[in-house]
Write a structure and sequence with these properties.
heterodimer; A: 249 residues; mainly alpha; 9 helices; 84% helix; B: alpha/beta; Rossmann fold; 6-stranded mixed beta sheet
Chain lengths: 249, 260
């Protein structure tokens, strides 16, 4: 029964994506909507990304410094490990898990509210492909903007680590900076960006799916919002395993 | 003109509409009335193509909506205007942007002409001054008027209204009714209104279709509705004490006149 239900949901999701990815009725309206979504989903998330990254970067550096007590391990390892954690996992996967909460719930509740207040019916009656008009700009906007958020996160996360090297004990700024540059592989930045673009698709499409198919009232909109965050997070973790295996091994 | 023939619709084996046929004429306000749960909204959704009937035909001026391709249906939808029960204005847009929306989407005219048309529609519903406000900043009656302006922006041939007076005070309801009636006559539209408001029935009911439990029970004009001998219709109409008393007073007065 569960399998049938999951299959049914997968079918609904694929059909919705097929309906969404068609040529827009009006290109000018599509670009207008795209700019609006880039601002709403992307630019509005910059501050939360900066704040979280700076603090987590600081905490990672302090934690590693506290846990490396052996004199056999060089001090630059702190900077090296902080960089690797931030580039490989934090700025892409963990940041996207956080964005799944912020952006995903916002998308699901916005589209869900439009559904229960008949705004989507109004679009359909006008002859507008509502899925295309509402969902496609959100997906494209998030996929276009998320690399910038990831780069912001990398930059501010490492900045947080550098700040910790000045303030906290157990490391020096010069050893930390040496560690940051030690055995640097630029592909890790691309790896992180590619992963985040996949996560952006997961967050925006799954949240849109849950919002678009809401039936009922405000209670169901709330449930859809929660379900979208849970499902997006699970799918991000699955995708993380698959992409890491495909790209790094 | 819109004609429906033998429309039947059921959900999970429960028949909601049973063999309904009717003609909705052009230039008239056609009302679908009935108690809550009688199938009015389902019938309206079938007529506008949001639901597919199990059997029957729906004709828009000799075009069968049920045999249309997706593109043909989208083309027909551009000839439709719809006023939803909750207005369904787009929250993220101002009143002006809401009215501009169908024009921006489908009109090939210049921005200046589109803005002129939107302003004309807002002026027609006396809402030009509120054009920069968002739906959350205006009253229920103003939202309905804004939704009417949006519905008529593309100069539709068919106008559909689902419970246009729900949540409005009697005076505002009358204003909305008069507005819809006036627009219908002015633009010679085929208007179908879904309502259980007896004031609307008596005020603008050019052609009234009464549905009871998914079955067409009666059809006639607002003059005929009071004189009807249909017990179900009378039960529905005189459920309001006000109308019942008005009807009794009317009968007493007639009797007195006959005696006098």
């Amino acid at each position: 029964m569960e399998k049938a239900s999951a299959l049914h949901r997968l079918g609904e999701y694929l059909l919705l994506m097929k309906k969404s990815f068609t040529a827009p009725t009006s290109w000018s309206m599509f670009f207008k909507q795209l700019i609006r979504e880039i601002y709403k989903l992307g630019v509005d998330s910059i501050w939360i990304v900066i704040i979280i990254s700076i603090f987590i970067g600081t905490v990672i550096a302090i934690q590693i410094s506290l846990n490396i007590t052996s004199p056999m391990i060089p001090k630059f390892t702190i900077g090296f490990t902080t960089r690797e954690i931030i580039l490989l996992e934090f700025s892409s996967s963990i940041m996207c898990l956080i964005l799944a909460g912020k952006v995903g719930s916002s998308i699901a509740s916005e589209i869900g509210t439009m559904r229960v207040t008949e705004q989507i019916d109004a679009l359909e009656i006008m002859g507008v492909n509502s899925a295309n008009f509402l969902i496609m700009p959100k997906i494209i906007a998030l996929m276009l903007f998320i690399p910038f958020l990831v780069i912001f996160s990398m930059f501010t996360g490492i900045l947080g680590g550098i700040m910790a090297s000045y303030v906290a004990g157990g490391m020096t700024p010069s050893s930390f900076e040496y560690g940051l540059q030690y055995y640097f592989n630029p592909f890790y930045i691309w790896y992180s960006i590619i992963k985040s673009v996949v996560y952006a698709f997961i967050i925006s499409s799954i949240s849109s799916y849950f919002g678009y198919l809401v039936k009922g009232g405000s209670l169901e909109v709330g449930k859809a919002s929660t379900n979208s965050v849970v499902m997006s997070s699970i799918m991000i973790l699955f995708a993380d395993v698959i992409l890491t295996h495909l790209m790094l091994t | 003109m819109i004609e429906i023939k033998n429309i039947t619709k059921s959900f999970d084996g429960r028949v909601v509409l049973n063999d309904i046929s009717a003609v909705f004429e052009t230039g008239k306000t056609n009302l679908i009335i009935g108690r809550s749960g009688s199938g009015k909204t389902v019938l309206l959704k079938n007529i506008i193509g949001l639901l597919q009937p199990d059997s029957g035909e729906i004709w828009y001026d000799n075009r069968n909506i049920l045999s249309m391709s997706k593109d043909e249906l989208n083309g027909l939808r551009r000839e439709m205007g719809m006023l939803f029960q909750g207005s369904a204005l787009f929250d993220s847009m101002t009143v002006m942007e809401n009215v501009m929306f169908p024009l921006d989407m489908f009109s090939h005219e210049s921005t200046q002409l589109r803005r002129k048309r939107a302003k004309f529609c807002l002026d027609r519903v006396n809402l030009l001054d509120a054009r920069h406000l968002y739906p959350s900043e205006i009253s229920g009656g103003m939202m309905k008027r804004a939704a009417i302006a949006r519905a008529i922006a593309l100069n539709p041939k068919y106008l559909f209204c689902d419970e246009p007076n729900s949540g409005l005070d009697p005076k505002t309801s009358l204003l909305i009714d008069d507005l819809i009636h006036g627009i219908t006559k002015e633009y010679n539209m085929t208007t179908i209104i879904n309502t259980h408001d007896m004031n609307s029935v008596m005020n603008i009911g050019d052609n009234i279709l009464f549905i009871k439990e998914g079955i067409k029970e009666w059809q006639g004009t607002k003059k005929q509705v009071i004189q009807s001998n249909n017990s179900s219709l009378n039960d529905f109409i005189f459920a309001s004490d006000l109308l019942k008393k008005a009807s009794e007073l009317n009968e007493e007065r007639n009797q007195q006149e006959q005696e006098g």
